[in-house]
Predict the 3D structure of the following.
Amino acid sequence: MRVLIIGAGTGGLCLAHGLKKAGVDVALFERDRTPRSMLIGYRVGISPDGSKALHNCLPADVFAEFVRTTARPATRINMRTEKYKELLVADIPQARNPAHRENSVSRIAMRTALLNGLEDVVRFDKKFTHFSRNDDGSVTAFFDDGTSETGDVLVGADGAQSKVRKQYLPHAKVVDTGITTIAAKLPLTPENVKLLPPQADGAVTLLYGPKGAFVIIHVMRFDRQENDDSGVEDDYIMWGYAASHDKFPDLKGMDGEQLKQVVLDMTPKFHPNLRELFRLGNPETAFQIKVRTSEPMAPWESSNVTLIGDSVHLMTPGRGIGANTALRDAELLCRKLTEAHHGKNLVQAISEYEKEMIRYGFEAVQSSREQMDGNGAIHKPVIGRVVLAFLRTFLRVTNALPPLKRRMMARDMAERDHVDSAHEVVHAG
């Protein structure tokens, strides 16, 4: 059996490793010209479920390299107002085993690590245009350089703008959530650390401001030796600012410096240290995204063409589960295709994958949409103030009642991760 994968994102690379390890002939095609081209976004939280999928699919040495390049895991959730006033601070459960814990990862470092061992599998600068089915049951992928490749299975792992999805499931809808985000990063220096909210170093920090404004801050510390040139990144701070579209000016054509200024113009009453973090963001790293999401869809008739990750169930970053759901897809599809490689009916194997993926994938889409919806009441002029006041009161009350806080954290972890690994989890501190 020969499997063609379109897209060298997190899910596509994980699937390629798993199939190669299982002895399946696999070829992966990526439109980027180089491994570091076109990567936006800086931090990905890989949940215990995502770490487990990587551990199961990757060769031991590649998984070890992935772990080596991760940042120190966040040990707490840190919720505050835009003026740094505490709302809720809670420990995040930590597993001892890297294969079953939350890992904090740089997108670039993760792609670099996952490309190890796939030199004979991945082909860059291959822009997929369309596919065709052949009389013998095979499928051929065509590329804009005039070349083509034929295999038994075609997997679309080509992200939100998936050309595989657009041809295969033209009725699948991707819609605007009404939320715009601007993000950037800056070096983690002793001076910049002093600008962070209390308890932000070592935490995932969420700040809830007026008019539905939302800020997320990640502190990325990597364990590295002095004069280490082994590919581990320099430490950095990442911030992201989000609000409903109507709060922003027209961002079209703006460069990084202008995007930063937009955030500063929108946050005049935010904590001065937070505004300084915005100002210090490296303009070359600043970018803006209008957040989009898939709409749930009914199951379709399975074939030897299928999809994983954002190409089928694009979700908002509201729950931080997009990459983890893609990894779950990759592990499940790898298992089903391996069964087909050993004699199981191919379409039946893919049908079993799709039935399960559609269920959990669109549950994740819905959960993520609830966290980032520009039409939500919190973004409205009058009722928004009431909703924000209620949210802050709820978080403060929860923070003051340890049993309630533990239940909230347990529920949040369960939603982010479908594997119950409580028996091997220890609480930080």
Observations:
- Residues 346-371 form the longest helix (26 residues).
- The two ends are 49 Å apart (CA to CA).
